[in-house]
From TrEMBL:
Residues annotated to bind Mg(2+): D173, E199, D224
Species of provenance: Haloferax larsenii
Pathway(s) served: Quinol/quinone metabolism; menaquinone biosynthesis; Quinol/quinone metabolism; 1,4-dihydroxy-2-naphthoate biosynthesis; 1,4-dihydroxy-2-naphthoate from chorismate: step 4/7
Name of the featured protein: o-succinylbenzoate synthase
Chain intervals for the UniProt region annotation (Disordered): 318-340
Keyword terms of this UniProt record: Lyase, Magnesium, Menaquinone biosynthesis, Metal-binding
The enzyme's E.C. designation: 4.2.1.113
Length: 340
């Protein structure tokens, strides 16, 4: 298995309640299955995955990629596991001459709606970013909240709803910033704004708290960080979520997302797939996984524009809030173009 490191700066930092994301570093891996190349990406993000150093170490220990997955050797390094699992899936789909999405599901989507990711900023700047996204064709926006005081966040959400009108779907992502009392107060104050959901209002471990918020308020609740710290089956059993936000990088690979999604479907819970602000290889992997899932929700995959550069040209740019799934075999990118 070949491993190459990379580092990409963000165009401007993405401010979240969890801190600023300024730069993304990771590894591209190349594997061979029956003479067919496959490529994967590990872009760790502490809080969701192992550290960069731990990821590097885990990948260095991989001799036989297929065996590493089969023996669960990368159980404690989800980003490393993601790279290996994605590379194997890419190689197998190329061997079978099928797009990755079609190798995951027979009736996959050919294109998907995606949300625009709007970072924390003062109210005027937030409204401007929201209006720009709607002008660019997005009809779903995800606003970061929880980084400033709750009255300011409530004012930001209200101002955006007033600016974009009722036809645009709005999501808010608090990245676990609130306690139960604060979340209760915010959810009561925004009950008239018709948010599609509030993502991770409480810290990751607080499944019971999220279940209480769901019972008390009409605004749906999504879990993100929780899935990186508790088994997804427990999150589902706790009735803590209307939506699970699945990050392939955090869950350990596309196969893990498909597994969570099949359990979620049985529980009547929707899946939204998002990147961890990744390079093109992992973004494409997430796009193919999202395309293989049922449902019509917008996914959180429109993060290429947050990066200053990339490891290769992007075959799936966002156009008017929609991403088309590449139809060529595997991920839809030439491994040699990425690794040389
Ligand atoms: O969902 C999106 O719109 C993009 C992905 C995103 O917001 C994100 C990106 C990196 C780390 C955490 C998160 C998050 O969903 O909290
Ligand atoms: Mg989130």
């Amino acid at each position: 298995m070949r491993v190459h490191d990379f580092a990409l700066d963000l165009r401007q930092p993405l401010t979240t309640a969890h801190g600023d994301i300024e730069r993304r570093e990771g590894f591209l891996v190349a594997v061979d299955v029956d003479g067919h190349k496959g490529i994967g990406e590990a872009t760790p993000l502490p809080g969701w995955t192992e550290s960069l150093a731990e990821c590097c170490e885990a990948l260095a220990d991989v001799n036989d990629p297929k065996q590493a997955i089969e023996t669960d050797a990368l159980a404690d390094a989800p980003a490393a596991r993601h790279a290996v699992s994605l590379a194997l899936a890419d190689a197998r789909a190329r061997r079978d001459d099928a797009p990755l999405a079609a190798s995951f599901a027979s009736n996959s989507h050919t294109s998907l709606p995606v949300n625009s990711t709007v970072g924390d900023a003062p109210v005027e700047e937030t409204v401007e970013a929201a209006e720009n996204a709607v002008s660019a064709g997005f009809d779903c926006l995800k606003l970061k909240v929880g980084a400033r005081d709750t009255d300011a966040d409530i004012a930001r959400l209200r101002a955006v709803r007033e600016a974009v009108g009722d036809d645009v779907s709005l999501r808010a992502d608090a990245n676990g910033a609130w306690d139960r009392w604060t979340a209760d107060r915010v959810l009561a104050a925004i009950s008239d704004l018709d948010l599609e959901y509030v993502e991770q209002p409480l810290p990751a471990e607080e499944l019971a708290g999220h279940a209480v918020l769901r019972r008390r308020h009409d605004t749906p609740i999504a879990l993100d960080e929780s899935l990186a710290s508790v088994p997804p089956a427990r999150a589902l059993a706790s009735n803590a979520a209307d939506v699970l936000v699945c990050k392939p990088m955090a869950l350990g690979g596309p196969d893990r997302v498909l597994d969570v999604a099949s359990h979620a479907r049985d529980a009547g819970v929707d899946i939204v797939v998002t990147t961890t602000i990744d390079a093109v290889v992992a973004r494409l992997g997430s796009l193919h996984v999202a395309a293989a899932l049922p449902g019509e929700r917008a996914h959180g995959l429109a993060t290429a524009s947050l990066l200053d550069s990339d490891v290769a040209a992007d075959p799936a740019p966002v156009s008017k809030g929609i991403m088309s799934v590449p139809e060529s075999p595997g991920l839809g990118i030439d491994p040699d173009a990425v690794l040389d």
